[in-house]
Predict the structure.
Amino acid sequence: MDEDAKALDALEKLMATAHVRGQWQVGANRPENMRRSPDGRVFIDPAPQAKPYLWRWDVMRRILDGACVVLPESETARRSLLYMNPGLQRGTTQTIWAGMQVIQPGEIAWAHRHTVNALRFTIDTGDNVFTVVDGEVLPMRPYDLILTPGWCWHDHHNDTPKPAIWLDVLDVPFIGMINQNYYEELGETVQDRRNDTALPGGAVLRPLGETPVRAARTCRYGWDETRARLDTVAGQGADPCDGVAVEYVDPATGASALATLACYAQMLPPGFSGHRRRRGASAVHFVISGEGKIEFDDTTLDFARHDGMAVPNWTWHRLVNASTTEPAFLFTVTDRPILDAFGLYREQTEP
Ligand code: GTQ
Ligand code: FE2
């Protein structure tokens, strides 16, 4: 070792005992993370650990059925199964946690609240399945979107003879990353309800009690209205990457569905073959109906009805509808509001 190397070695030993690290020792600026543009300049951009991945509906169905047998009642109040991205320790993307939940006939997923923001997209339910959010009864019919914004009380009910299944999407990995996870049980199984008359079966009416009710906002978006909106927008043409897309927003403010998550309904017209694109936001897609594929540089996800898919951040891909006669419908959630909040959002499209 020459004198300079010895001096550096001694300095780094002192630094280690002092809990100090040099920028040359850690982080994005390490040489192996640097890349060079065609004109020779060094640059860094995100290299997502998450992988493109698809969870098949028939496999999920088997697991959901199995969970009903081995977990007659869920110990955590929720019989939910999470889509684990093969590239991550936990999570579906680095910020989003998605999966499926099943609730048996007569079961109640008891009331609780958490700082984690969550939503349900209904897959398979009868007429009398509902979630109560801060005292308001929200019916869950197929393909409805139900929001449980952070710190809202919520309990889920299935007053039908069949198991009910929905997609859960939460910002668990993000809230965990910033260590802001707060959770509490109500103590009662269910909260008091203000509008039981909203239910077709007319469940027992309980008076409004002391449950604190926050500023009312829209927490339910019915599929019929969403579908009609897509048809209207389709008349104005399709986006070359997304097809026909509408965002679920707060009708009072135009804000994204949740503080951290944006929700969209997408229709890929028959024969749609999208342009390549990459976005700073990561996404989870759920297939409402239709068949198609998402093409990445090194893999292709072939999707069919009720499959779930993860699209990592900053990863080139394009959407294709495999049918020339039928449209494909997707429900999509992204973490774009987190990026927009800090001016971080970017996207690139290839013609
Ligand atoms: O239904 O309230 O998948 O609190 C994870 C945490 C569902 C829920 C999940 C939850 C819920
Ligand atoms: Fe919850």
